[in-house]
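dumping this here so i dont lose it
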């Protein structure tokens, strides 16, 4: 069964390295060496701790089945997306379950890459090929 599904993929790697600079962009060494900013890593660890505490509170209040059901809902809603095209996926169901729909940050109204002057329109065919596993690479092309 794996041999039949493996034959559907088009290899884009030579020697284990992605060398398609036109599709994936130029490779930067700095991003491999330098980690995230200390404040950003602190925020991420704080969010993980808060989620773990909320999960433990739900286990204590409602039992072990309730957090498992929430995890299943989160997994199902994280996979639900529109096909690549002019209307982006909003992931409204996932935002509602996680509670992030109530948070309004500057990224919600400022710095939208689709409003940039250098934005390349989406190639729907390439996006579907990546989603179906026929091609590798990012679904959305990077900004020029």
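and the seq i came up w/
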């Amino acid at each position: 069964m794996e041999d039949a599904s493996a034959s559907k993929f088009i290899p884009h790697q030579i020697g284990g390295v992605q060398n398609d600079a036109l599709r994936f962009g130029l490779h930067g060494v700095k991003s491999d060496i330098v980690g995230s900013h200390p404040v950003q890593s602190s925020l991420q660890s704080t969010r993980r701790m808060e989620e773990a505490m909320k999960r433990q509170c739900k286990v204590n209040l409602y039992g072990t089945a309730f957090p498992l059901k929430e995890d299943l809902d989160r997994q199902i809603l994280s996979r639900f997306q529109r096909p690549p095209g002019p209307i982006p996926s909003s992931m409204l169901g996932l935002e509602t379950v996680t509670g992030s729909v109530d948070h309004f940050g500057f990224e919600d109204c400022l710095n939208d890459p689709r409003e940039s002057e250098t934005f390349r329109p989406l190639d729907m065919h390439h996006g579907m090929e990546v989603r179906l596993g026929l091609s590798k690479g990012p679904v959305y092309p990077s900004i020029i």
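Helices lie at 2-6, 21-24, 30-33, 38-62, 65-79, 92-98, 124-132.
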